């Protein structure tokens, strides 16, 4: 199946280096069979979320504890921590959570090694198809949320909005489910890397507040 030419941004390559996988790991996922694609992509997100949390806490002794947390548990998992710390947005968490559901349905039975994303998508009803398409298009979801406002010169213009409609996302999903998931995952991985800087900022704000509180005593 023909796909657009891919050029992986430096930030994704940097994230691969941080979590300890070989450079090009993410790009190579498109060449995997569908079962391996889902399992390995989930493992990459697990490693990325673990690394971000450990970076934020700056407590090496927590490494084993954090690594053992479930990824998508809504109350005690890695995503729950990232949500409370504002280190990953709603759209990113939704993608990872949906990927976790898919991965959990596949991982415990080796017979699922013949799994086909195209066959799975073909069996979804209209509502399931819509929700699956939206879950794996976080960037486009943000675009739809901010239409262009000419009075403030803010938001995404109509030509970009046109390419981010739900119908367009459903079409992309139907044509190439793996690529649709991969593109959405690309967006979330870059967001995760951006959060390292935000984590540093939060730590600075907290340290500044402690310093000011001490000065007031």
Q: What is the gist of this entry?
A:
Helix content is 68%, strand content 0%. It is mostly helical and 217 residues long.
Characterization of this structure:
- With 217 residues, the protein is mainly alpha-helical.
- It has one domain (10-216).
- It is 68% helix and 0% strand.
- α3 crosses α6 (90-107), α6 packs across α12 (177-216) and α8 packs across α11.
- The longest helix has 40 residues, at 177-216.
- The protein is globular.
- The N and C termini lie far apart (67 Å).
- The mean pLDDT is 92.
Give the topology.
Layout (H helix, E strand, L loop, with lengths): L9 H10 L5 H4 L5 H24 L5 H6 L9 H7 L5 H18 L9 H6 L3 H10 L2 H8 L12 H5 L3 H10 L1 H40 L1
Radius of gyration: 19 Å
Low-confidence stretches: none
Percent in strands: under 5%
Please identify the structural class as seen in this structure.
mainly alpha
Our count of domains comes out at: 1
Q: Give the fraction of residues assigned to helices.
A: 55-70%
Q: What is the overall silhouette?
A: globular
* Major sheet details: none
Number of helices: 12
Oligomerization state: single chain
C-alpha end-to-end distance: 67 Å
Order of helices and strands: HHHHHHHHHHHH
Overall number of strands: 0
Q: Mean pLDDT score, rounded?
A: 92
Keywords:
single chain, 217 residues, mainly alpha, 12 helices, globular
